[in-house]
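Progress report, Aim 2. The chain analyzed during this reporting quarter is listed below.
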Amino acid sequence: MEIEKAIVQSKFRSPIEKAVVNVIYTSNWINSQEASSLKQFGVTIQQFNILRILRGQHPNPATITLLTERMLDKMSNASRLVDKLQAKGLVDRKTCPSDRRQANVLINDMGLAKLREMDAVMKSVDESLGNLTDDELEMLSNLLDKLRG
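Predicted structure tokens for the chain:
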């Protein structure tokens, strides 16, 4: 659907404004699709992001600092997210032996299993969003990289 129809706005001040509105609208639309799919697991998009980072680090632990640096949503509180994931039994958090001010966070077996379940659901979300060809998706990624340039 064209952005003009989606937000019921026929004119934009400039192509830049239209593009920015379209990127924001599309980002929110994708987030809504993902959040809806993750709801059945009792996990937020931000928690899912932390679990994926931890899986990428596995079997090595990650610090809260590393998680914060790698998170997609820079406004989220990584420490609070880890606390919630720990309460759900999906991660383990231990004091770093070399620096007691730091915490080492590690995804556990239950977290890895839950993440595999989520991956299957998220794959179907990806497929439902897949009305672009691989070449178009590559072009879109390149354009977004260029935009952040």
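The chain has seven helices and three strands. The chain has a mean pLDDT of 91. These observations will guide the mutagenesis work planned for the next reporting period.
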